[in-house]
């Protein structure tokens, strides 16, 4: 399939929006989420606060026009640096200090859908997530580039970690290596030693690294979000940790091997849970979500039993199985013939997992052991 130019990508997305509106019996669409805004504009940023889910600009698509609604603070950047007027968006600008419902005016008399709860509108959050997770060829190339940068940043940061550093200092290393590559570090989780065994989402603290550290990152570029986790141990790795890491690697390999077209996300989830049982850790999956499809959100959906959405070529997934004290996470791209691990780190120690029915072993990251 030929790679799309940005103009073709933009027009294809407009077509997908029209098809979604027709299928839902609606006439207009309001997009306020940062992720939807980036998707619809081929990567533009509508946020000021990087942690915000809703941006400072809203897209409104009607049967006759495409509008960008924002205030006088954001409009110059969106026009001059994001070049959104060149895409054909008609700017509707309001003074930052005034409250005026431009969106109601633009959609008056129309059947409206929105990607956020909006009075009088049909909530299309699920449908928009499905559009965002089915990447077009150009988006897949952008994701490959993002993932390479994310992997490089993780590798540099974790190899620079040293006993005696605080989790704050390690988080600063990870943020520095990520941001200097032009990638926003929107999730930066650090745990050391016993905190790895206590918390699945460890926000950094003043605690100092003694022997064991886990670094978790989600990086964003052009709206796309990529995830990976790595662990490092200073000294000889205890056998119990090694056993857990080998088990979680096998579980992760099972998730990756199962993530193929023709299966539902729910079926992939069930296979992963079965691997927890097979490796002797039957209840660990209950302690944290297992990940799912990514795209313009860290996860566009979380894998759960019975989720009927189908795995498709061109989707990216970030599965993140964990067994207390260990975790395995990379971002993968579902290809026509095989899956591609996008955040692979060259030279990183790996665990080779051979699964029944698979022709080749699946390589998963081991814990890096440093003297």
What structural keywords apply?
18 strands; single chain; 2 domains; alpha+beta; Creatine Amidinohydrolase; 10 helices; 33% helix; 371 residues; four-stranded mixed β-sheet; Creatine Amidinohydrolase, Chain A, domain 1
Summarize the structure.
By secondary structure, the protein is an alpha+beta fold. The chain is 33% helix and 24% strand.
Helices and strands in order:
Blueprint lengths: L5 H19 L3 E6 H7 L13 E8 L4 E6 L3 H6 L9 E5 L7 H5 L5 E3 L7 E2 L1 H9 L3 H24 L6 H13 L4 E9 L1 H5 L13 E10 L2 E11 L4 H20 L6 H14 L12 E3 L22 E4 L2 E2 L2 E2 L2 E5 L4 E3 L8 E4 L8 E4 L2 E3 L1
Parallel strand pairs: 1-5, 3-4, 5-6, 9-18
Antiparallel strand pairs: 1-2, 2-3, 7-8, 8-9, 10-11, 11-14, 12-13, 14-15, 16-17
Helix pairs in contact: 6-7, 9-10
